[in-house]
Design a protein that fits this description.
By secondary structure, the protein is mostly helical. It has helices spanning about 25, 40-45, 50-60, 95-100, 110-125, 135-140, 150-165, and strands spanning about 65-70, 75-80, 130, 170, 180. It has two domains: about 20-80, Winged helix-like DNA-binding domain superfamily/Winged helix DNA-binding domain (Arc Repressor Mutant, subunit A, Orthogonal Bundle), CATH 1.10.10; about 95-180, no CATH class. It contains seven helices and five strands.
């Protein structure tokens, strides 16, 4: 581990690593079926083993990852894929299908992060059915920057994609309220 990270006057690291950063270890695999170890996360995030375990276990608690002990002291993590009872893949919701098909800039890991950011923006709107641009930037962008350096760059990519998702009622003019249609017309589901 290098000591390039900035520290404050008390010797503590400045800026926390969000748990979602551990997903970069999954994105960097050549074999996407291979489970990830804490060492994989340590290499990608340049962090301690304890930090890697904390980030991975936080994602397990959120239901993003699954984990299993292997051997006496080993543990692996993976992104679960649930099979339907018949062995076929479960049906995906219209929202999930729309998120996967909407145009976003980037490829590979960058596109994956941007789809996750779009999902987070949609979920935020589902929880806050009337939101402004500033709400998305304040509440979604910090945890899901999706490889954008500025909130405005992020919004310029996410906003047109968000307009394409089912039930989203975008404002007609800048600065107005975004809404998610509900009731008997549309029930948002993420699957």
């Amino acid at each position: 581990m290098t000591e390039d990270r900035e520290r404050n006057a008390n010797g503590q690291y400045v800026g926390r690593i969000p748990p979602e950063a551990a997903l970069e270890a999954f994105d960097s695999r050549e074999d996407v079926a291979r489970p990830v170890t804490a060492s994989d996360v340590m290499d990608v995030l340049d962090c301690s083993r304890r930090t890697a375990h904390n980030k991975l276990n936080a994602l397990v608690d959120e239901g993003v990852l699954a984990t299993r002990k292997v051997g006496a002291r080993g543990r692996v993590w993976w992104i679960p894929i649930e099979a339907a009872p018949s062995g076929r893949q479960p049906e995906r919701s219209p929202v999930e299908n729309a998120i996967d098909s909407v145009e976003l800039p980037g490829t590979g890991e960058t596109l994956y992060k941007r789809r996750r950011a779009l999902r987070a923006a949609y979920e935020y709107l589902a929880d806050n059915p009337s939101a402004k641009k500033s709400d998305f930037i304040e509440h979604v962008y910090p945890d899901h920057p999706a490889a954008f350096e500025t909130p405005d760059g992020w919004w310029n990519a996410i906003q047109p994609a968000l307009k394409e998702l089912p039930g989203v009622d975008p404002p007609e003019e800048r600065g107005q309220i975004w809404q998610l249609l509900g009731g008997d017309r549309f029930t948002p589901t993420l699957g």
